[in-house]
Amino acid sequence: MIEKDNRPVFLNLLAIKLPIVGVVSILHRISGFALFLCFPLVVWLLQVSLISLESFNQLQGYLVNSVFLKILVVMMAVGFIYHVLAGLKKMLAEFFGFGETLKSGQLLSWLVFALSFTCSFWFLVYIW
Amino acid sequence: MSAVIPVSHLQTLRMNIYRFNPSIDDKPYMQDIDIEVPTDKDIMVLDALHLAKVKDPSLSYRSSCREGVCGSDGMNINGKNGLACIMPLSEAIKRNKLTLRPMPGLPVIRDLIVDMKTFFDQLEKVQPYLITKSKNPEKERVQSPQERESLDGLYECILCGCCSTACPSFWWNPDKFLGPAALLQSWRFIADSRDEATEERLDDLEDSFSLYRCHGVMNCVSVCPKGLNPTEAISNIRNKLISRKGS
Amino acid sequence: MKFLESGTNEFLIIRACALFMFLYGVYLIYFVVSNPGMDYLLWKSFFEGLVIKVFSTLFLISFAVHTWLGTWAIGSDYFTPARLGGFSKIVYVSYRFICFLIVLIVFIWSLIIIW
Fold this sequence. Notes:
heterotrimer; B: alpha+beta; Ubiquitin-like (UB roll); Fumarate Reductase Iron-sulfur Protein, Chain B, domain 2; 2 domains; 5-stranded mixed beta sheet; two-stranded antiparallel sheet; 9 helices; C: mainly alpha; 3 helical TM bundles of succinate and fumarate reductases; elongated
């Protein structure tokens, strides 16, 4: 019979420092899961855009006029852009060995943030 | 380290230390202890702990060699894991405060002392010793200088636990994911030209938890007091696992 | 199951699916960007081609596999007995069931739309 361990464990995540490479990693997980949850919405938008001329035009109208829909689409795009870029960084390290030292890992992390921001900005301009 | 220092060269440092005594306390708490540290010398966190213990003798922590080779005094220093005996105050102190907590994720025995059992259990699983099948040679198993070089950055591990206790994957599954320290040692033996159990070692790492919980967070590399790189070691093992799939 | 019990296989499959989905996404974005002010007819005809239908179906399979394995990794990190005690089994199973529903809905619905 194994006794239950009542001893405390220090795991206050707010008190533990997370370096930038760790931040990239956890955001990659969060963005992935968020995208997963949003996908039914994406499918619905696809359906609306394909089903008839009227609904296509209606959707286009909403996209142009509704700030809410624009924000929603931008958020999904940002999540997608970030998840893909962070994923590419991860695969760069796993398959080509780039970014496995502390310095190179930090550099690529900043690159992911910079590129994500830039691409998201482009998309924002494109859609607005 | 003497506790008697000329007053003119001292300044007060506030230490904020995690305390827990299972026979007295219901739950852990943070305690402030103010100590006087020299301004003309950069002492180590361990020295500061010794000074704190003069103020409060009930304070408990592990230490031994005091020179960064035994791995006893791994702890969480101002949010980042490190070895107290080789972490100078100049590097450790933030805003004139030194917050010390036990290494994350492991059960606390008392104050800054944690139970390293799960850490060592995982190490045991990788069989961290040379495994040979061929007959023992007359003198020794010969290794060229180049072959010996490939063990640099691997043999130096002092098993302090800073890396594994900084790894989120190890926090969530310390019994299934081996953690950076054990995996680094696994690679240390896979990479050793004298070891003859490479295939078996790799077989043991094929499942989805032992190695594949590593997502490249790199906290391990960030905290290692010996400057080692478990992420790279894990990557090397993974490359071997993948390339032998093709054959 | 034996096939998936191998962490190496799981590792490679997630990344293969990711790469495939990335290529699909790039192609889609390329099409949209190279046709500014695209009208309904062009958009509809794009999805009518057999090649796109097959490509999209493969995308959906990749999506299903990638997200199923990805969400499994998340679940097995956070919904463990060590963290949730007695509730872990029910929480984990509920979580997997919801993930399964989402994958199923996306997969079936998209197939209907595409074909």
